Batch of 2 targets.
Target 1
Amino acid sequence: MHTQPVTTRLADDETLERRDPIVPPDAEVIITIDGPAGTGKSTVARTLARRLGLDFLDTGAMYRAAAAIMLDRDIPLDEPGELVSTVIGADLHFDFSADPPTMLAWDAPIDHRIRDEDVTAVVSQVAAIGELRRHMVRKQQVIAAQHPRLVSEGRDQGSVVFPDADLKFYLDADPAVRAARRTEQLRAEGHDVDEADMLRRIIERDRIDSTRADGPLTCADDAVRVDTSDLCVDEVIDRLEEVVRQRVASLVRAQD
Ligand code: DC
């Protein structure tokens, strides 16, 4: 593979150094990124996908969409059958022409709703429903078949959904660091947040996510584990990109 810098002159006369793509344009590559909330996982996954020219799959958005549907249709949490059949009817999918891709239910955008506080409060419990997870796993595998150059982010992507992924990452960080990051983020958005309460909620969410019977939050044996506690988002992305750069040649050779 060629990785020699290529210098390109842009229209506004700026000079930009461009490298050959890290992942060749014709290679099928699935990269998974798992880990708990507050590790910067979504931003890291989305930016890494953009840098590598891959599609980005936010599987948390799918569970959040299911939770929003449950709340907005007044479906009780203890009626998983009704929830799953409604979610199947919603045909959750993404419009990949947007960046980040738009989450659609019944062919209508649902992004504006899925990060609301009431959705965040129940989504762990919704994501623990085994029947719903089996549906989501199948959907995610179908999406990957249609988008075979993918960075897929979630909790079970490397362990359950794509056990044969080409490269798996697991991002982690101290819960106190994650609570501080989340608090700062919400305060910047104008919310009134108590950091101690945020830490309690993060620990509880981790407990639910990592102890459920189906697809628990776990680091796959063959995942590259990165502790992000002392790293900023850009440093995490650079580190992952470096691992991809080191591994991609052998990945692509294995496909030939
Ligand atoms: O990453 P997030 O905060 O948007 O995820 C929302 C919830 O969905 C969170 O409780 C974890 C859960 N989830 C999951 O169980 N499996 C996934 N693959 C992705 C998210």
Note: Confidence is low (pLDDT under 50) at residues 1-17.
Target 2
Amino acid sequence: MELIDGNRIATAIIAELKAEVAALPGRKPCLALVRVGEDPASVSYVRKKEQTAAEIGVTGRVILPPVTITQAELEKLIDGLNADPAVDGILVQSPLPKHLDELAIFRRVAPHKDVDGFNTINLGKIAQEDDTGFVSCTPAGIMELLARSGTDLKGKHVVVLGRSLIVGKPVALLALQKRAGANGTVTICHSGTRDLPAITRLADVLIAAIGRAEFVTADMVKPGAVVIDVGINRVPDATKKTGYRLTGDVHFPTVAPVSSKITPVPGGVGPMTVAMLMKNTVKARKPGTFTA
Ligand code: NDP
């Protein structure tokens, strides 16, 4: 079994981006990070994104509207960022408080500044295999992890657990694309899937993104499969100072021995998501990258 080290791969990407930003003429790329409210996971994700931006020379502009902000006010804020020539990328940290329509906000971000890749246009560009768009960061990070760990999907059966717009659907479309590294045969499973273990056992590459702690057990995995664990779940743990531990959607202790390659949690997909956000931001700074 080989561990796919997301920290190491993300560090390499960040170093590449740092060199790229240093060589960019003129103003440095600017990323607006919008976080509504004080959700603890969102606070830590935005802090990490801000730190990584600073590390590579991207200007981070953190905007913290109060949790009471209305839909109309948040849309006005996004419109202002869309129109601001000093802002290259806009990220609205998910999840938004329940009273806000998240999908409408994702759609409001101008496609050419949508470095999170959740706008309708950018999701559509994945289906059209149009590289001028922005691929959402976690799916892009998964593809990069596979490529940089020497896993070619060509001819392989890729099973994706989960069909969210943020992970499951876009990663399935990326794995399906007719291009080097992809070309997989893809099955997507969800809560309506019958006899899920029978399907996951057919996977050469299993991508778990369902948000259920340690859901995937060894009996659900074909020996020798590559396992990508996207899940980030907080499980109560009295032995930890925080009172919880982080775990993936895969039961690592039993699945790791049967897999050929596997990502850990933490230290797998998570760091890649931030690295790909930075990659998209640098891409957004380059004139003429995005075409409508
Ligand atoms: P969502 O809750 O939006 O989607 C979960 C998906 O899993 C849904 O399609 C759901 O099916 C399916 N599902 C849930 N339970 C089951 C089940 N028992 N059997 C089969 N399918 C099931 O989650 P996300 O995609 O946003 O996130 C998934 C996980 O990835 C979470 O742990 C999240 O924290 C993590 N994550 C990690 C990131 C990273 O950077 N590493 C980034 C984003 C997410 P249905 O559609 O039928 O409801």
Note: The chain is about 40% helix and 15% strand.
